[in-house]
Amino acid sequence: MKKRFRVGSSAWRCWVVDDGDQLLGHVCVQLFEKMPNPVNEREVHAYLTNLYVVPEMRSQGLGRTLLNEALSWCRAQGTDAVILWATPESKSLYRRCGLLQSNDILEFRGGTLRGRN
Ligand SMILES: CC(C)(COP(=O)(O)OP(=O)(O)OC[C@H]1O[C@@H](n2cnc3c(N)ncnc32)[C@H](O)[C@@H]1OP(=O)(O)O)[C@@H](O)C(=O)NCCC(=O)NCCS
Prior knowledge:
The protein is 18% helix and 28% strand. The protein has 117 residues and is an alpha+beta fold.
């Protein structure tokens, strides 16, 4: 894990909040490329994950602050869509920060695909 988060070589970008002593929360983002295109269309998407705040610090706005920081950075990178898998309990937070439920995404999970011959 350490290797995959090494500064300079990692595709992950993480935001953390601490109290000077220990971590209180974090969120991680990885950009991924879209197919290059000849028109004026944004060429990266972002996958946002691991939004977490320690239980004793929840409901004080830290989650929202972390999320807004990550989303601002995504905007500054020219990101087209930011995608994530939300738990039912966290959806209201994501909605407040501007994320919308998509009807367009199809999901393929390795273990559940049934081929049609
Ligand atoms: C999601 C999480 C980071 C929010 O942190 P926070 O500092 O409490 O967030 P804020 O104070 O800015 O906002 C509170 C919002 O958190 C969400 N929330 C509350 N309890 C939650 C829970 N048990 N699990 C997930 N989200 C929760 C709600 O959307 C809440 O908004 P609401 O009061 O309008 O319902 C935190 O609850 C957490 O770490 N949960 C466990 C990990 C998790 O579920 N992460 C999201 C994965 S998609």
